[in-house]
Every structure is written in structure tokens, then in C-alpha cells.
Amino acid sequence: MYIDRSVSSVRAIDPTLFSPIQFHPHALLEFGVNDVCAWFIKYLGVSIARQLKDYQQSMVVVGCEINYARPFQFFDAAEFTAILDKVRLRQSNTVLEFFHVFAAQEEVFARVILHWKLLRLDGAAALSAVSGHMHESLLVRFKEEEIDSSPIQRKLLTYVSEVEYSSPVCVEGSLDITLHRHQCEVADQWTFFQLTSLVAQARECLVMSKAAAQYRMSKVLGVPLKQVAMELSCPVYLFELMRVQTKVYKWQGQWVFIHRIYNVDRGHALAATVVERFE
Fold it and tell me: Which of 2, 17, 139, 199 satisfies CB 3.0 to 4.6 Å to 259 for a cystine?
């Protein structure tokens, strides 16, 4: 019987990982990225830096989903385990799918799925790239069971369409934010896990606005997130202006925040769609 190749690490609980309500989404994603890098080193024998330098290949996150499985707060445990449980090379060897599990006291509190699109560097000093496939020298290091050529379903956009079609907008607003270097990765473009913080800022501003007063939405500030899902469609680079446009719906008894992030400096291009769902 095939056993998936995984990596795991036990980490101490510290107060910066939590809000008063739950484990920060961005922290889950940061640990997820680190485990992806560890998996490449352990099973493919190559670091992400060497993947760039030796194979002229990089990866960029194009989608992710965080699902909180149960309440878990700062005082509930002394340590937790981050596990990259399963890896699949999907969509004709163009997208990597990573399945992450986070557990404490032998009970899962969050699950994360990350989709990374493979890119081929075009030789520019700024690490610019075009769509690519897994390099042949690395492809042979994958197990047969880890390769699944089927396409990834874009469930998020289907969900967004369903919510927007069947529910009226309760309240909406926008927030302009300039991307600064502390929000960037090595190529001076946004780090995807920063999106969870950007939309949280937009949500809190909207919830506390006069426009939301009639809906008594301030209670959302004390409710744990159930799910955060995002799809990224183009990057935002250092010092470029972003506009986060947020619409709030009450759908099937839940508050749903749909955020669209536009790159104002690049023709108002849609850079990402992020959906937050609450308990």
C-alpha cells in the first residue's frame, strides 16, 4: 500500500501566532510554505533556491483554502504539529497541490490546501517568468502515485457566483493600500499569505463603518473564521497601489465577505479574489 511522502515539525505555541479568537490565517500559510520547501529538499533533493538557479524554474501560489476544523486558542496547548501530509503534481505537470494539516494534542484544528503554478524563468534579473511544466530532471523524482494529470476545479469562483446570484449585498466598501517591502518576497512582489491580513483589515474597516451599523455586524469581530479561500490571478509589485473592494452577504445563515483586490497601477487588473466565511 502506498504511503504518501510527508514532512512534519513540532513547534512551540507563542502569542504572536494568535488573535484573541484563533490561530492567525497568515501564520498557517507561512508554516505551510516552509514545509513545502522542506519537502522539496527531503524528497526531490533540491532547495527552492537551487530550483531557481539550477533548473530555471520557480513556483507561485495561485490558490489556497484554509479550513478551521475546531476552536483552538492560545491557552489550549503548549505546542502544535505542522504536517505536509500529501503532494500531488496536477494539471499535466503544471500545478503542484499540497495538503497541510495542523494538529494539537493529537486533534486536527486546521487544514490547508495550496496550489502552486510552475513557472519557467525567462532569464531576466528581476526573476520574471512564464508558465511552465515540472522540469524533467525533477519530474522523475516524483512517485507515480503523486502524479495526477487531471485539472484542478476552480471551486471558489463557482461559490462566489452562487452567493452573488442568490443573495443581495448587505454592505460594501473599498480600501486602498500600497504594497511595501515587508509584504513582499524575494522577487519584490506580494507574498500571498499577506492577503489574509489585507482582507482582514478591509473587513474590520467595513464592519466598523456607519454603512454597516444597521446590520449590527460588529459581533463578527468576535467570531472565529470558518474558512478563508483565495484565487490569485496576477501579481502586485513593490509600491504599486491595491484597491480592496469588499461586499458582504448573509448567505445560508452565515456572514460571507467577498473581497476583490485590484492592481490600480496596472489598469485596475483583478489580482486576487478572497472569500472569508464565519461560523
Answer: 199
